Hints:
globular; 20 strands; alpha+beta
Amino acid sequence: MKLLTKSLIAVALASSLVTAMAADKAVVENSFFPYKNGVPTVEGLIPGTVLNAANVDQFNSSVDPVLLQQIKDGWVEITVGETTDFALHPNYVAATEAGDVSLGATAGEIQNFVAGRPFPQEPDINDPRAGEKLAWNYQYGYNWGDSAAIYPFYWRYRNLETSKVERQIKFNFHFLNWKHRVNHDPVPEFEKNPSGLFRSIYLQVLEPFDVKNTQLLIHRYEDDLKRDDAWLYLGFQRRVRRLASGQVTDAFLGSDLMIEDFEGYNGRISDMKWTYKGTENIILPFYNHNEQDLTSEFEDKEGYEFIDFEGKGNCYPKATWQVRKAYVLESESTNPNHPISKRVHYVDAQTFTLPRTVIYDRKGDPWKSWTICQAHPDSHLAKNKGTGVSIDDCFSMIDLQAKHCTTGQFKGQVDPSLNEKSLFTVQNLRAKGR
């Protein structure tokens, strides 16, 4: 009888385990394929609709408030495209299915994370740490995959009122994940990583001459409670200096961006208080690159053409947007001396990229309007096809108060051969600077 009872318990436990695993798989599938049963719709807002000052009020629920005002003021018109699937790499999805992740007791602590999306569950507005979970999903997202480069990368500083290009800087940017890798060898991490790095970013200025060879190196540690290390090599000084933590919120090379703004948010989870504000169906700058009206003004030996710009000051990407499911995520600095009061991120629910962010000044007024375009990898360079990476394709950072903007035009390449580990060292800064 006891044996029978034990057998029945074992069967029941096995059955419940299978059910739990199936439920987890369903949760993961819902997270990565939110449009499998149909795309989000807004009444009257169909592909081909041009949002402008005359009609945008009837679609105000589908446009974030700051962009809505810019359209109403006639600064830009936006053409709506078809909502499309941006499926991430199957290995990243599979790593998510294998995970069993939880938050630690303190903001910035995470437990049992190996790879994939840490928290695929739909956020709960009643969960006080829902925002923190969304932030971790972004931090460990598949943005640029395991290793990629923007090679080259053009920044233009523009006068919003006159459209004058005041300055152009040509960069190369490089990104490397040391841990939580899912696709490029070694997986899941590099064996030789004595400092415990999670991710590194390296950039080098190629032109103009007065800032040529300026380089920036950022090391982000696996331990989120450990402050990032960053070094700057100034070509005209020919020396490396460590950046103080406060310098990541200074204007970078005179642009409208802080280092902390890179990729939508470039900082630690523990540096911010994160609040989930709800889920919306809004327009975001997702598209097929090869279907846009591109510019050939930059010479490229492979014949690659870049996203163009239009609108007031030529500060707006000349590309279609689409209605997508987004999580509204607010971040407030834990540092009372921070130059901003908060950011409001519109997090794409499928890719967990940050295509739209509104930055507020210390008085609580809108300060900057931050847009990062997302191109489908299969519509981009041949080497990007099949990578399952939502390709950062252009950016626009508009300073609404100074009436100025900085725009970025990308040639994003998911190519680990461009990212030797030696690039991401202080020694490399000195070697490249000679």
